[in-house]
Amino acid sequence: MTTVTTRTVEYPADGLTMVGHLALPAGVDRRPAVLLGPEGPGLDDVQRGRADALAELGYVALAFDIHGGRWFTDPEEMLARCMPLLADPDRMRDIGHAALDVLRAEPRTDADRIAAIGYGTGGAIALELGRAGVDLRAIATVNGLITGRPGEAARIRCPVWAAVGSEDPIMPPAQRDAFAAEMQAGGVDWRLVVYGGALHAFHHPMTRTDQTLLPGVGHHPRHAQRAWRDVVGLLAECLPLGN
Fold first, then answer.
1. Across the chain, what does the average pLDDT equal?
2. In this model, does residue 29 exceed pLDDT 60?
3. Residue 174 to residue 165: CA distance in whole angstroms
4. Sequence-ordered strand ranges (E) for the chain
5. Where does the Dienelactone hydrolase domain start and stop, copy by copy (predicted)?
6. What is the rounded distance in angstroms from the CA atom of residue 167 to the CA atom of residue 44?
């Protein structure tokens, strides 16, 4: 295991002061980087840990914030914040661009080699950066199969890997089909993995006792591990550390 350095970074976005988590690998050289977006409840220790794990692999990683330092335990409060955000591509892009600027400004970041990974709302933000034409090496979205404005998928300049649970009522088959049709029509190099028997947020261990879950949300440990391996495999393919 390499030595990882972490620090909290504050930056403005969406009228809020965002509180991100930056993880740096050992060394002083410039490294490929990963922008990591959280689920609807917000940035928590699970996503911070994922950023640390990416830094251990050798990437600069920024787990970005979407709620100005808040983490929602009440799903109704979370939906009241997230649903208008998910309906506004420009707001999502602004949040993504603000975090991307922080990541690019880090001296250890190779600004020409950045990927975006997101879960739920964070995955939708990663996709919107692609639809905005941002130069990314890869995009991964887990449980964030949000379709965009007509024709904008053609601006995506990198492979897109998407994942969803087969029993996810929040991302049902019709939404999967619409997402696939959008990617195909845009000429995107895309993949969609459906994890059998998994619910929404299957990748996220429920570590907090104060959190109320929406119906259809649940952890699937085996598929969570598989999805993480798939994400790491995407990075190895599109953002190799040796080049």
1. 94
2. yes
3. 13
4. 5-13, 16-24, 31-37, 60-63, 109-119, 139-142, 160-165, 190-195
5. 20-237
6. 25
Coil, helix or strand at residue 145: coil
Tokens 């977006």 appear where? 37
pLDDT in tens, 123-154: 999 999 999 999 999 999 999 999 999 999 99
Q: Which residues of 165-189 are buried (b: 16+ CB within 10 A; e: fewer)?
A: bebbebbeeeebeebbebbeebebe
Question: Rounded to whole angstroms, how far apart are CA atoms 73 and 136?
Answer: 32
pLDDT in tens, 159-176: 999 999 999 999 999 999
**Contact predicate 100/114, CB 8 Å:** yes
> How would residue 243 be classed by pLDDT, with cut points 50, 70 and 90?
low
Residue 150's identity, in one-letter code, is P
Tokens found for residue 198: 């998994």
Q: ∠ at Cα 42 (39, 48), nearest 5°?
A: 85
Angle at the Cα of 117 from the Cα atoms of 113 and 121, rounded to 5 degrees? 140
- In the structure encoding, which two tokens stand for residue 163, read together? 């994942």
Q: Which one, of 155, 105, 160, 120, lies nearest residue 135 by Cα?
A: 155
Question: Which residue type is seen at 226?
Answer: R
| pLDDT value at residue 96 | 98
Predicted TM-score (pTM) of this structure? 0.94
Sheet containing strand 139-142, edge to edge, reads: 5-13, 16-24, 60-63, 31-37, 109-119, 139-142, 160-165, 190-195
- C-alpha–C-alpha distance, residues 125 and 92, integer Å: 5
